[in-house]
Write a structure and sequence with these properties.
3-stranded antiparallel beta sheet, 11 helices, D-Maltodextrin-Binding Protein, domain 2, 3 domains, Arc Repressor Mutant, subunit A, alpha/beta, WH_DNA-bd_sf, transcription regulation, LysR family transcriptional regulator
Length: 304
């Protein structure tokens, strides 16, 4: 076994807390991950972890080795990146994430073409509408709609995206068409919300003549999948607040009707988020450049 591979598994076990999680991250079985930790412990002659049935926590020796191991891996990555820059032949794995909606529409379909251009880059894509802890999960690039809240991360804006509040004609025939933001609450309209631990969408933020207004809207059900909300809206089950490019085709077809045009929701930025040191990696730069151009082009077509 490669000593560096052993060190990589060790670092991820410390960061993720279990052999199974570290194994998934490094694409090895828990048994292989366990053997790599044991080999490191034999090599150094000390125990690196205290083991329980649920979690591994580093011993004092393990904590000391972790600090040095992180620096070793960073130095190796920087050296490999420098060589890749000189040779114009980037190699290695990229772990990227995106929300389900933009992941399906914009990101996932571009991965094969990206790999065709850079065949030595292995892409690991994870799609989720949940908040992803970029640092602890070892993510290289996260494409997201939102704002940067972690000062340990950096952001490259791709484009500003208009949002729209809309619902199906059948819903408005049944419940009436809201004329003002306050009517959403006063008339107890069924507003469909994206909810998950850490979600910021428990309220809608609209632009009014009096300024930005937060509305604590409610509805009979919610989901952690934005596309589920769109389908419920299409079925006449409620009102959604979505990026316009995601629902423009349904609006053009008359399947959804935009409302509150004079008090639209605040827009949202599509951006690439990455740890500070990752942008030194040519693979990260290439992925962000490629996806930025692709997203701008495809969203432009969706809005045409």
């Amino acid at each position: 076994m490669s000593y560096l591979d052993n060190v990589r598994v060790f670092v991820r076990v410390v960061e993720l807390g279990t052999l199974s999680a570290a194994g998934r991250d490094q694409r090895v079985t828990p048994a292989v991950a366990s053997n790599r930790i044991k080999e490191l412990e034999r090599h150094m002659g000390v125990r690196l972890f205290n083991r329980t049935t649920r979690k591994l926590t580093p011993t004092e020796h393990g904590r000391v080795f972790y600090d040095g191991a992180v620096k070793i891996l960073e130095a190796v990555n920087e050296a490999e990146n420098a060589i890749a820059d000189l040779s114009h032949n980037p190699k290695g794995a990229l772990k990227i994430t995106a929300p389900l909606g933009i992941g399906r529409r914009l990101i996932a379909s571009g991965i094969p073409e990206f790999h065709d251009k850079y065949p030595d880059i292995e892409v690991r894509l994870r799609l989720s509408d949940h908040n992803v802890d970029i640092l602890s999960e070892g993510v290289d690039v996260a494409f997201k709609l939102g704002i940067l809240e972690d000062s340990n991360l950096r952001m490259r804006g791709i484009m500003n995206c208009e949002r729209v509040v809309c619902g199906a004609p059948a819903y408005f025939e049944k419940r009436g068409l809201p004329q003002t933001p306050d009517e959403l609450i006063a008339n107890k309209h069924d507003c469909l919300l994206l909810r998950y631990p850490g979600s910021k969408e428990y309220f809608w933020t609209l632009q009014t003549p009096e300024g930005v207004k937060k509305l604590e809207v409610t509805g009979p059900y919610d989901s952690d999948d934005g596309d589920v909300l769109t389908q419920w809206a299409l079925d006449g089950r409620g009102i959604i607040n979505k990026p316009l490019f995601e629902v423009k085709s349904h609006i053009n077809a008359g399947e959804l009707v935009p409302i509150l045009a004079s008090t639209p929701p605040l827009g949202v930025q599509l951006a690439a988020i990455y740890p500070h040191k990752r942008f030194q990696d040519p693979k990260v730069r290439l992925m962000i450049d490629y996806m930025a151009e692709r997203c701008q082009r495809l969203i432009g077509k969706m809005l045409a």
